[in-house]
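Most newcomers find our protein records easier to grasp once they have seen one. Read left to right, the backbone structure tokens trace the chain's path through space. Nothing more is needed to start thinking about how sequence determines fold. An example says more than a description, so a record of this kind follows:
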Amino acid sequence: MRPLSCCITLVLLAWAAPLVAHPAPFSYLDVRLDGEALDVRLVVHVLDAAHALQVTEAELLDASTLAPHQQALIASLEDRLQVSADGQPLSNGAWSSPEIVPERHGLRLRVRYPLTRPPGSVGLSAWLFPYDPIHQTFVNVYEGEEVVAQAILGGERQAFEYFPGTRQGTWAVVRKFAASGVHHILIGPDHLLFLFGLLLLGGPVRRLILVVSAFTVAHSITLSLAALNILTPPSSIVEPAIALSIVYVGADNLTVRGGRDMRVWIAFAFGLIHGFGFASVLREMDLPARALGWSLFSFNLGVEIGQVLVVLIVASALAAVRARSEVAGRRLAVAGSVVVIAAGTFWFIERVFFSSTA
């Protein structure tokens, strides 16, 4: 049986060798910023290019037979490579003729986009060869001769945004992440309900400012820790804990009877947990490594702006009700607290027993 086993092994090795030796078809995208233009250089594997054009690889690796297919290749790639500056798509690129790159078994193309001013952000979207679901495009961004950012596009990630290390880039980071912070707090019903519960009992403006500030300081701490990957508890713990914080603040409203107001400490303690919830959203936004501090600061600023808007509206409405009728104000606080407890309980049960992360 030993000779037979050896023969089988040799046959399997001989069959597998071509598979291992076959070059993996990747694409390579180099982006250079020179102030007056955006220079993009793209290298594609001839296997992918041949499939897209329905020709043989040999035709694309010979200069004489490549020429008739140049415009078709450019047209194919032009539709699938999207470049933007400051959120505006660039469509005025001048493409060069493909150049054969034998050592990479590929073709190199260059496209240059003229710019009217240095951009604050550069966006790339590449879905170059849809026939291959695992195709990847390796991106290098250069400022001068230095590689300042890298990314891999493929699978679920088909877009990448880069912020240059300039004044325009910093301002673009502030705008983007501050707007995201405002958006997130305004569409986050659990965070809003927690704030609403803290405001239900009313009180002096100074006290309400302290409550909201304590919440802001706390979630800023844990948001930064999580975004920097220093402390990242799983969402299966964080999300139910956020729901319990909502239940707690509602129950505290119902049980307090003219005693000491602990809302500042409640806001701080549970704000630490809510910060981890904010971080889960921030991590999905692909934080710019060269402007990490600005992105964290801007997102927190946006969350704070959103909170202030909510506090002004809710606190003013509750104060107006109390001014008209103290009894109605107390009844509203009780009814609102019951709603807060019910919603928090529902979210807790849903997140513990029915969530996909549980």
User: Anything to note?
Assistant: Residues 168-354 form one domain. The longest strand covers residues 37-45.
